[in-house]
Give the backbone structure.
Amino acid sequence: MSLLPYTDTKPKGAADFYFGINATFRFMLRQFGEAGFIRWLTEMGHGYFEPVNRIWREGGLPSVAQYWREFFAAEPGAEVEVHEEERQVVIDVKRCPAIAHLKAHQRDIVPEYCRHCLILGQTRAEAAGLSMQLEGGNGSCIHRYGDAGVLTQDADAVREVS
């Protein structure tokens, strides 16, 4: 059984979807500001992702690792390694498929693009009784998931897209 919250018959998604995501982020930021952008992503993390959050709550860190393996296996152009360590899951994104595709097509990427991974990741982790940390951005980053309260976020650790 797939842990992804959607069904798709294709083994890989369509990379051009990243254009729509970038445009949506730009709209949300312009229309509602940073606070509205954060609120929107937080609501998505609690609402849309609740079925996955529940699986993470019940299955713990092994289910987090399985989810991210499935997620990035379906992302065109992703170069990602998922490691299960004793008390955490490390997702090493060597090549972010979204940023790579947007840059390859010379799109004006919203500088805050990488923050969506942090906001959604922390919201979902908290809903599952876990903690999440992100460092890097702008095409490569490292996500960490651990037990609640174990990981803390350095505010300067997430780079804007340039």
